[in-house]
Each structure stands twice: as structure tokens, then as C-alpha cells.
Amino acid sequence: MIPDNDFITNKDVPGPTKEEIRCLVICKSDVAKNDIVVDVGCGTGGLTVEFAKRAKKVYAIDQNIKAINTTEENLKKHNLEEKVELMHIDALEAFKNIAKIDILMIGGSGGNLTSIIEEGHKKISSNGKIIVTSILVETPPEAIKIMNKLNMKLNVVNVSISKGKLIERGTMMLANNPITIIVGKK
Ligand code: SAH
Question: How far is the CA of 45 from the centre of ligand 1 (A)?
């Protein structure tokens, strides 16, 4: 897993997803070398880069051009540009141009989460997965409701990670924001 400070960042772009959360997402995705991954809301490219290291191809989608540019810089830094197609477009528009998806990662939805899950569900393969990572309390109930309606098998975890920082008297634990990860299997 790439350390957080190995990513190029931009003040107008969220991310990267913290290292320990990337670990969990990659682990739960069970990504395989022939998989096609779509990363909706690629942001800084934290998850795009990790998926690109392991999958066959990644479509990295973001409606913010600065996110697309930052993701591109991080792909270059980690020598992964060839595996990734960058798409500066809204998620729902992007789906029209993608034939098959094994793993749909949703890290941002701009208020369109239900439609993105519904449309994504039509595109994922028969044993495909949809993964949502969320910092908001409103997002998990919405994702869970629509995934249940689509008869997906759900796995929901909420994690609060603290990381040790060396101070004079010892190692002080500093808390990160809690994150919810929702995985739906078709
Ligand atoms: N997982 C990323 C961070 C995601 S931040 C990382 O590890 O770096 C969420 C991103 O979702 C933002 O950049 C935002 O522009 C994008 N986004 C939100 N709604 C979107 C939509 N409907 N279509 C495309 N991108 C969207």
C-alpha cells in the first residue's frame, strides 16, 4: 500500500483516501488481475492508483478537472498511466461508454448516489461488486436501501482509525475521521 505522503495533492481536490482505508477497500474488493474497475469520483487518485496496480484496467471518473489532473499526476508518479482511462465527466454519463464492469468503486456521488448505484448495477458482471466509501452519515442508509432493493449481498463496516505520532514522551494516538465502507455483491 502506498503511504499517504507519496501522493501529489491539490488543495481543491479531496483525498487521497487514507492508507488504512485503502487497505480495507482493496481487501474487501478482492480485486483480481483480469478485473475491470470503475472509480467514480477518483479525486486525488488514491484508490485509482491502488486498483491500477492490481486490476486489468481502471476507468477513473471525476466531474472536477482538477481531480482528473491530480489523478493523472499520481498515475505518472507510480508508472500506471497505461492501465487507466481518465474521464472528465459525470458518473451517469460515463457509464454509457463503458461496456463491462467487475468492480464499481464510488467515492463521490454529488447527490446522485441512488441513480449511480442503479445504473452501475446494470453494468456490473454477474459476480460484480459495488463499493461505497463514505464520510457522511446520510450516505450509508441510502446505499444500503438501494442495494437491498437490488437484492445485493451486503457487507457494511464502520472504522475509526487512530495513528501513532512520535512526541517527546512517547507515541500519541491521533484519530482520523470514521469511515463507512459498504460492499454490495450482485
Ligand atoms: N477516493 C478518492 C477521493 C474521492 S473524493 C481518493 O482516494 O483520492 C470524491 C470525488 O468525487 C471528488 O473529486 C468529486 O469531484 C467527485 N464526484 C462527486 N460526484 C461525482 C459525480 N456525480 N460524477 C463524477 N465525479 C463526482
Answer: 9
Lookup: cell for 138: 446520510
CB 68 within 8 A of CB 42: yes
Give the chain's domains with CATH numbers.
32-154 (3.40.50.150)
Angle of helix 65-77 relative to helix 46-54, nearest 10 degrees?
Answer: 40
What is the C-alpha to C-alpha distance for residues 110 and 115, in angstroms, rounded to an integer?
A: 11
| Ligand 1 atom nearest to CA at 62 | 25
Distance from the CA of 166 to the center of ligand 1, in angstroms? 32
Ramachandran quadrant class, 110 (left: phi over 0; alpha: psi -120 to 50; beta: rest): left
Please tell me whether the overall predicted TM-score, pTM, comes out greater than 0.90 for this model.
yes
Sheet holding 153-159, edge to edge: 84-88, 57-62, 36-40, 101-106, 124-134, 179-185, 153-159
For ligand 1, atom 20: residue with the closest CA: 109
d(CA 170, CA 167): 5
pLDDT digits (tens, 9 = 90+) for 77-111: 999 999 999 999 999 999 999 999 999 999 999 99
Q: Which three cell numbers, joined as nine digits, stand for 56?
A: 486489468
